[in-house]
Amino acid sequence: MSTTPRNRLGELERAVLEHLWTEGPSHPEGLTVREVHDVVGVQRDLAYTTLMTVLDRMAKKGLVTRERDGRAWRYTAAASRDELTSETMRHALGELAGTERRSALLHFLDESTPEEIDELRAALAALEARQAPGSTPRGRHRRQKVT
Amino acid sequence: MYILPLALLAMALAWPVPRLMAGFTSFRRAPRAALVVWQATAVAAVLAALFTAPAAVPFIVRQQSRITEHLGLVALAGVVSGLVLARLLVAGHRVGRNLRVVRKRHRELVDVLASHDDRHLRVLEHPTPTAYCLPGLSRRVVLSQGTLDRLPAEELEAVLAHERAHLAARHDLILEFFTVVHEAVPPFVRSETALREVHLLIEVLADRAAVRDVGPMPTARAIVDMAGGGASPAGSMAMGSTPSAAKVRIGLLEPARIWGLPVPIASALMYVFAGLLVAMPVTLLSMAFAGFLVT
User: Fold this and answer.
1) Where do the segments described as Disordered lie (chain A) (predicted)?
2) Does the beta-carbon distance from A105 to B245 stay under 8 Å?
3) Which end of chain A is less packed: N or C, by CB atoms within 10 Å?
């Protein structure tokens, strides 16, 4: 469970965005801080001003966009969930090349090479043969001589 | 007169040595020692370049009358040291800032998209298998749903152990150091091969952690499964002629000798070599000043 304040804030931003995503189709003009607070804030027992600050931060991060409506702001999600997910994946898969981008994230596998998969399977089989008990390199050598 | 040896040392360590060392593939069997040797090479090259100008100081002071004779050489030393220092500071600042901007933006996206069941682990709803970590103070390990669907539990454990090793040992700082040095030197000196070798060594080191956790076979299978599933990224550095990192890593999962020597002995020799590398520029500068103080 997330307990640090920083993590709770991240979780709250996520809840706010989820709410904007679900309400988006029925409220194309966006939601006010009050409307977001009535659902997300009340559930979590948070002050109105907390939601105001969170939405303001999210606008600065470019996660939500806002438009003035009289004296209040109306907030909408800046991108759909799918759009954000593909942006993240594009970012993660390193399409934005460059030395620094490559070292920004440390991947389990930097370059995925599906065309090489047969070679990799062969390397795996060779390792398995060496790892299997009773088939030390000497043992394998002997067997080769017999056949 | 220690300006010339220092300048030559800087040049040798910046250009031919990294290209030569990238060819010593046996080094990969002792990844930690190999990384130390690589770092020592970079540090020694930087020190040698920085020391050329200070080495000229005793020379100037002692032979005041004839300084004009060697003005060219002394000026060159000053320019080299100054340039190296300036370029390092600029590159360090730029690389550091860019890395932090990219990581921050990515962390914001990941945090808002993925559930927070675990403090550091995030799962992205995407079918393409991918696994990586975001280093830094608020670190994250990120897996895609595609990875969770594709890998059995044991292989998943290998991937997580690998990423946790990156984060725990702060491999990002090693990489950042080499990226800074790489960017600081003029393009004709840069060696992509050397940078890629360092990258590979870091992966081999993280693989060792996975092998300790789950053994070589699940780790090898995880590498193969991750390699087969992903879409090849546009900026991929896969080269047809050289074996890919994945294949090399599978070959390095079990212990083996280095040049016929047991790994601990080879590692010890490599550490000594690394020490000698850094000692060279330091010794040359001390000799320049020692001669000055004695006379």
Assistant:
1) 128-147
2) no
3) C
Measure CB to CB from residue B179 to each of A100, A113, A120 and give the nearest one: A100
Fold category of A5-77 in CATH: Arc Repressor Mutant, subunit A (1.10.10)
Q: Is the pLDDT of residue A137 over 50?
A: no
Q: What is the DSSP string of B31-76?
A: HHHHHHHHHHHHHHHHHHHHHHHHHHHHHHHHTGGGGGGGHHHHHH
Map out the domains of chain A as residue ranges.
Answer: 5-77, 89-146
Is B130's Cβ below 8 Å from some Cβ in A?
yes
Q: How far apart are the CA of A89 and the nearest CA of chain B, in angstroms? A: 8
H-assigned helices in B63-184: 71-113, 145-150, 153-168, 171-184
pLDDT digits 0-9 by tens, B123-142: 999 998 999 999 988 899 99
Contact A103 B176 (CB under 8 A): yes
Burial class of residue B73 in the structure, from the number of CB atoms within 10 Å of its CB (0-12 exposed, 13-18 middle, 19+ buried): middle
CA distance B162 to A8: 27
Which of B121, B132, B163, B226 is the best substitution to test chain A (most A C-beta atoms within 10 A)?
A: B132
